[in-house]
Amino acid sequence: MMNMKKLSVVVLMTISSIAVFAQTIADGLQALDFEQFEKARGIFTALSQQEPTKGANFYYLGQAQWSLYNETEARAAYTAGIAAEPTNPMNYAGLGALALENEKVDEAKTYFDKALSFSRTKDGRYKDINALIVVAGGMISAETKLTDDAVKLVEAALELDKKNYNALLVAGDVYLEKNEGGKAATMYENAISLQKNNPKAYTKVSSIWLRVKNAEATKNELDRALAIDPNYAPALKNLAEFYSLSKQYVKAKETFQKYLQNSEPSNANKARFARILFRNKEYNEALTVILDLQQSDKSDLYLFRLAGYSYYEVGNETKDTTKFQPGVDALEYFMVKIDPKKILSNDYEYLGKLYARIKGKDSLAIMNIGRALALDPNKTELLKEAGMIYNKLKRFDQSIMYFEKYIGSTQKVLLVDYQLLGLASYYGKYFSKSDSAFAKILELKPDYADGYYWRGAAAAGNDPEFKTTAAKDFWEKYLSLTEATPEKFKKNLVNTYNNLGVYYIKTDNNAKAKEYYNKTLAIDPENKEAKERIKQLK
């Protein structure tokens, strides 16, 4: 959809050119500037009915509709504006921007050229600065942009009047789209010099610093804007974004709520609020806002992406397994509808993790995690996720491979990571790998009892006839750390007693074996293995 950062330049064009209704139009333009799009729609709907021959009324109505994601209604307004005033360039520029939004570049150029044709002189120069401004703004308002063409137009506009406030603002926006921040800043600062008490250009400068994540410079410009008008909605929105990027999530939420109070609680603005909540890790609140929005409007595809992410986070956080399938449904809908070039590694990551938590969907989980890693090999946490899924599938070779890759690539290896590798290796019958993993755990935490238990199991796997005492020694160490609190370690204590029983039978010490089986029965009187072995030893 249209980039809202660009809208204000296009719609706040010269009020002087339509001075007959200056005050009423000024109210409508202020509503657009404050991102009060529903209010602006009402004002310009009324104006277009009161003065049906004024093309500007329809243009601003179209801008309000587009900002509310009503593309069909916006096109209708621009078309009506052309019928009302065929020589007004504004509505042709509006249709051109809509064509760009739909990637119809040739159609867009036709509309833009028509908009400019009314002020083009015989020698190819332009005489209407307002036409240049509105067309240049339209060229950068959609996902598809004609930035180089827009540069030529703003240069022509500034040749006509280098002190035109709106021309300077749109020139700044155009240069910002070309990633020429220095030129953009110069344009905005020149605008500030013309209207020092207008917060708009200060807010524009803050957008430059936001883009390059310069926190101090961003905050300085926003302070300048809000000192002029503490309720200026675009500055509050940028400030919320600044707090979010700075990970000051509580302030981000509070500031965005203030932004909503000074703009309006439209669907477009609520969608932005949902994104703030998600970044704030308030996933349930974000999901509530999204689902409420989608009750009445499902046109914002990106909200389906955010819904999928939020379903996963809520389900994972609350252990609510009912959240995972709706998360899959939302993300798959997004990925089917969106341009494939806009699918991110994060989309495949979340889809993989959602599938991993739904019974019987492990192969789909692996497939999507693989796609995420292909797009972004630096997502090391996904290596562990893949290892755990393969572990669940008992495909231990793959599980071991992913756990080893994870341990080799992350800077945050935990004891549990070695344990995952050790257990996968044991069950995959790679006993030496298992022993090495648990040895690493014991190197880092020598009093970790289970480390000795599993080293004993790995030693027994390598030496099932107990030709050495390695397994026995590890199990005895395990007992020394756990026998004082049998209720805490009951399961592995029983296994260890029984294992030692087998060890002593194989080393021809039945009395010692019987001693360990009796220890088993002392804490697990119905243990079948111990009862059967004792019968055999009599």
Description:
The protein is mainly α and 538 residues long. It contains 30 helices and no strands. The protein starts with a helix and ends with a helix.
Summarize the structure.
The protein has 538 residues and is mostly helical.
Q: Which descriptor suits the 3D outline?
A: elongated
Structural class: mainly alpha
Return residue spans where pLDDT drops below 50 for at least 5 consecutive residues: 1-23
Instruction: State mean pLDDT (0 to 100 scale).
Output: 91
State the distance separating the first and last CA atoms.
83 Å
Oligomer: single chain
Radius of gyration: 34 Å
Q: Helical segment tally?
A: 30
Order of helices and strands: HHHHHHHHHHHHHHHHHHHHHHHHHHHHHH
Topology diagram in text:
Blueprint: H1 4-11, H2 22-33, H3 37-50, H4 55-67, H5 71-84, H6 89-101, H7 105-117, H8 129-139, H9 147-160, H10 165-177, H11 181-194, H12 199-211, H13 215-228, H14 233-245, H15 249-262, H16 267-279, H17 283-296, H18 301-318, H19 324-337, H20 345-356, H21 362-375, H22 380-392, H23 396-409, H24 415-427, H25 431-444, H26 449-462, H27 470-482, H28 490-506, H29 510-523, H30 528-537
Helix pairs in contact: 1-8, 1-10, 2-3, 2-4, 3-4, 4-5, 5-6, 6-7, 6-8, 8-9, 8-10, 9-10, 10-11, 11-12, 12-13, 12-14, 13-14, 14-15, 15-16, 16-17, 17-18, 18-19, 18-20, 19-20, 20-21, 21-22, 22-23, 23-24, 24-25, 24-26, 25-26, 26-27, 27-28, 28-29, 29-30
